[in-house]
Design brief:
The chain contains 15 helices and no strands. Helix 2 runs antiparallel to helix 9, helix 4 runs antiparallel to helix 8 and helix 4 packs across helix 9. The protein has one domain.
Length: 312
């Protein structure tokens, strides 16, 4: 019975990451309504709210937290700094250039996450990368590139402001890709219910300290409208804390390098949202790229499930 249950959970792992990615793709729609707020205020608010929601987990596991090693704390701080603050800041700032670049393109540039994560996973986690996985990773990257740049080369808009937005998105890809690897390292010794509130709490603490040291930002909070608070709360209970908890659950059963490919469902669904809500139609080349991306995701999902079964 225990073995059967273990196999079932490991089968769920890859699809948990896909579900989190789908929730992240909806994030951009809600985040658009927060454009008038400084990015650091958005980072602090959503992580502070998420920390309050997960605080009972932290209290329940306080004894285990007290015994964490320095290396584990370092990895959690990396996740908070890069995955929580830098990634969100870069991503939110890139979305502020929405008049120069489609929001789906900003999300699609997250396709670079596998490059950073695969490189770091080999160095930090000593993960063995099979040729079959690398082949599908290349297919996913090609598909993502075609969806983003259907003409085969970047175009410059208004002095290259769309390229600035793209570079910010790439910065977010590095931040989140490296956070994936460090999250996998932390999960070797930690339960999901420990790492989630620790990451949220540290991110809120660091971003809050920044706000306090820059008094000009403190005055922003009274100007946050009731509608914007509702959107912040909605982010916490969908694409924020909830998606993060689902993601870390899935990451326990999937290699960090493979999880970054599974996360490709995020940009793929974002293109669909851009089409449905903003009437931005895909070209033939973009459709071909989306098909390649989807096939690569499905193949990696199938392979990750097979490995989980074999391991039991």
């Amino acid at each position: 019975m225990n073995n059967h249950q273990a196999i079932n959970w490991k089968r769920v792992g890859p699809f948990a990451i896909i579900l989190a990615a789908l929730l992240w793709s909806v994030d951009a729609l809600m985040r658009q309504n927060l454009y008038s707020l400084p990015s650091i205020v958005i980072v602090f608010s959503e992580h502070a709210l998420g920390f309050l929601v997960t605080l009972p987990w932290l209290i329940q596991n306080r004894k285990q937290i007290q015994s964490l090693s320095n290396k584990t704390w370092l990895s959690i701080f990396w996740i908070a700094l890069f995955g929580g603050i830098m990634g969100t800041l870069f991503y939110t700032k890139a979305l502020s250039y929405i008049q120069y670049i489609n929001f789906s393109v900003v999300v699609l540039l997250q396709k670079l996450q596998p490059i950073f994560a695969i490189f770091l996973a080999g160095i930090i986690l000593r993960e063995k990368l099979r040729p079959r996985f690398l082949a599908w990773a290349v297919v996913a990257l090609i598909g993502g590139y075609l969806v983003t740049f259907p003409t085969g080369r970047p175009t410059f808009i208004d002095g290259g402001k769309n390229i600035v937005a793209g570079l910010l998105a790439v910065g977010a890809a590095f931040a989140w890709g490296s956070s994936t690897v460090m999250g996998k390292y932390s999960l070797r010794n930690l339960d999901t219910r420990i790492i989630t509130p620790l990451r949220l709490g540290l991110t809120a603490a660091v971003s809050g300290l920044y706000i306090v040291l820059n008094n000009d930002l403190v005055g922003v909070f009274p100007d946050v409208t009731g509608t914007q608070w509702l959107y912040l709360i909605a982010i916490v209970f969908s694409s924020g804390t909830v998606a993060l908890s689902i993601y870390y659950f899935g990451l326990k059963f999937v290699d960090a390098s493979k999880s970054t490919i599974l996360e490709m469902f995020w940009p793929l669904s974002a293109v669909t949202i851009d089409w449905v809500f903003f009437d931005h139609w895909l070209t033939v080349t973009q459709v071909m790229g989306a098909v390649l991306l989807l096939i690569a995701i499905l193949r990696v999902t199938k392979r990750a499930t097979e490995i989980a079964v074999e391991a039991t």
